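Sample 1 of the test manifest.
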Amino acid sequence: MSAGGGAGRFAALGNGRALARADVPQLSLPDLLGAVAQAVDDGLRVAALFGAADPDPEAVAIHAVLADDSRARLHLARARVQGGEFESLTPRCPQVHLFEREIAEQFGLRPVGHPWLKPVRYHRSYRAGHEVFAGPGGEGPAIGVTDFYRVEGEEVHEVAVGPVHAGVIEPGHFRFQCHGENVFHLEISLGYQHRGVEQALRGGPGKRAVHHAETLAGDTTVGHTTAYCQVLEGLARCQKTPRAQALRGIALELERLANHVGDLGALANDVAFLPTAAYCGRLRGDFLNMTAALCGSRFGRGMIRPGGVGFDVESAQVRELLMRLDAAEQDTANAVELLWNTASVMARFEDTGRVPRDVAEALGLVGLSARACGIARDVRHDHPSGIFRFAHIPVSTWGSGDVFGRAYVRWLEVQRSIDFVREQLRSLPPGDVQSPLAALAPGCVAVALAEGWRGELCHVALTDASGRFERYKVVDPSFHNWTGLAYALRGQQISDFPLCNKSFNLSYCGHDL
Amino acid sequence: MIEVIRARLRQGYRTMAYPDAAPPPLPERFRGRPRIDASKCPDGCARCAEACPTGAIDLRDGPRIDLGRCLFCTDCAKACPEGALHYSPDHRLSVRRREDLVVASDEELALASALEGRLRKLFGRSLKLRQVSAGGCNACELDVNVLNTVGWDLSRFGIQLVASPRHADGLLITGAIPRNMTLALRKTWEAVPEPKIAIAVGACAISGGPYIDHPEVENGATGSLPIDLYIPGCPPHPLTILDGLLRLVGRLEEGAR
């Protein structure tokens, strides 16, 4: 498919590898976008589509990264755009809709014919003098001020929520178009967490870079930092030791365990089933504390470092971790299985917030939200790197696409991650945990994918002639999946929003960057 | 139903005895208050300060660390050629004044004193807080939320996180305050009835943290709101947050564990 199909004119590379920028094929923009659409028809996915500065200030370099999950290949091509607009691909290929809005906002290029052209994070363009979303006086777009989709009618009402919510959660704005209890449409407007991380990484890596990676989304510290380090190691041709790879995998799966167990408890809480809510709240902490036993931080700060890991484990620690893992496994099974055996829980989970498989494919959903729709999509399996090339974790899927599906996939993954961590702890290879990192190759591009607990984390770096980041692009799984949540609410009762929202549990800061 | 009762028996009673008994054990590698042994510092060496990602170390007149900027990372300790820098296991970090976070290593931290007079009378036994999350990574929020789990059970101290600023006695703020949140934070603050307090949790809310001086943020809430309690960390451990809150409402005496 890919040889003669859409990606045929793209350069191919493996996960975590680098390529000379000169070897990235340069197409015309219509050819590039046409090839992206063709490749998506062929079954590939858009992992990233983004702009970068061009030596000519009047031009923008658009880069496309396609993922061929069945062949473990990534495909890369670029195009130069001059002027202020281009023909939108979104009507033909919906999964690029937010990427095109982002290009419009970051580089002042208008995707003509985009059906939903609104700001993403509400900031000024990176290209002075080129704004798509400028205010009437030429100022940048005001946060939350946009032409929200509206349903008109005598009995239709609108509910606006946020940015400050009732719970202890991140800021975002939600607009519901309702008919009584029923939601016709939900529009999600973010950008409140925008703190300029991509721009700050330009010219780097500086001394804050790894900390920026660790705080792209705090609950995904290990995942994002793993992707960031893979980019650096690809650019520096750095080989990690087997022990470092195993420890990275352990940290990544402990992060998944903490978040999944916490989410299962929070889902129970949202249907007022307090036993599981209480137990899983505590058990989430037990998994976080295992990560803290590794590196001193419950969120894995300091654990993942370029060239390896920041902390080794001693054999006494391994024994202690194995004991704690056994105890947590038994208590978690006891707490979570209550959910599936309780009719009042299942009545709320099943058939709520359903996303059909074809919609999930069209929107390009990733991670557990995609797997809950029956799509076997998992970077650990499809584009394995590090320890996942040697130790395989079966992909967990469920076909229902509803809240139950997203809950149940979490539970399947909890069991498999525990098995994985136990196996890795028992068979840790000896050796060092750090390899020296050489200077980053100049004039290169590197792409890294990692399967964070929410889904695919994609990091792309373009280096300049001196090996510094000229552009650093981050795609959090939430960037793909927020639209999935909006879709899941269609035809639902508005009172089920918290439940649907928690079943996705998407990141605001990972989206807003 | 019988399964639910069985599970309840199995899961047991989990609320910690702290503060009546010792706090829960912290991991061996936990990074609490950083300390520099200045006697080990070679003349003219500034490697720790140069390595610090947030400029938290000031070497003029003897080393001083700004705990409000500190990310509790390992960069300074790794950079030190003499091993002069280490993280102590001391989780107690909260203070009442911003300047008290800038400390020399041999100096005792001016741990937060309790609210005085009328505020203590009003809030000492019942403190309702509205949380505002603004421009961090969500780790501080998550470890604030942990205080509501059965292990910590924050409500036994009369402290509760409430849904509306109008029901609140103050704000608990996390994040570096992006310009995109300036208005929302101000409106939420104005919606809290007087008298009210403000608590900044985490390096972002205190100083901007990893985002210090990004044009997109305000370097935390310190400049825009009258902060009554600073709880440093990136993120602070739940025990550090609880310690700060309990000191503020007078449930931990000065110097207590």
